[in-house]
Amino acid sequence: MNCVRRPFAALLLCIMPLLTSCVVLPIPTTESKVLAGKPVREEQLSFLKPNITTKQDVIERLGNPNVIWEDVRVFAYNWDMRQGILFWAVGAYYSGGMGTMDIPKHYALLIQFDEQDRVQRLERRVRPPSQSYIDFLKEWVRAPSPQSPQNQLGQGE
Q: Which domain does 57 fall in, by range?
């Protein structure tokens, strides 16, 4: 009987690593679900004119911003859209678990004002997931203003 157990034990030792596993599968989706914040659509931005639109006009049309950086006169409106779903599964012998989670895409509408509280520049951007929010804002503030007074709404997407 001992002879039968040894091959079975050897087979079991060979199979055991196969019984534990982890699966992670990202599934792209359309950006139709808002995960956080209130999206600012391009059609809502037609009133924004550099050197003309005031800070008060912006607040009346878009509401209060999520972030106000007073030192550099910047408003930030933030929202997250679902760009995919992450499916995960973990198994170990006879037990395991699985689930899903949303993969967000971080958007921001950034508006900088001049000393007279008029729109100086604006841009709708996507923040990389690996970049902290404060670094994202600092990088945008340090970036040179565009040469023409036209906005940059389509960039960064």
A: 18-142
149 assigned to some structural domain: no
Q: Residue 49 has what DSSP assignment?
A: -
Tally of domains within the chain: 1
Q: Tell if the pTM clears 0.85, that is, is over it.
A: no
* Cβ-based neighbours of 70, under 8 Å, separated by 6 or more: none
Residue range 76-124, pLDDT digits in tens: 999 998 988 877 777 766 777 778 788 889 999 999 999 999 999 999 9
Helices (H), the chain: 2-19, 55-62, 133-142
Q: Which stretch of DSSP H or E encloses residue 104?
A: strand 95-113
Q: State residue 10's pLDDT score.
A: 59
Provide the pairing of β-strand 74-92 with 95-113: antiparallel
Examine residue 137 and state whether it is found in any structural domain, yes or no. yes
* Rounded distance between C-alpha atoms, residue 62 and residue 50, angstroms: 16
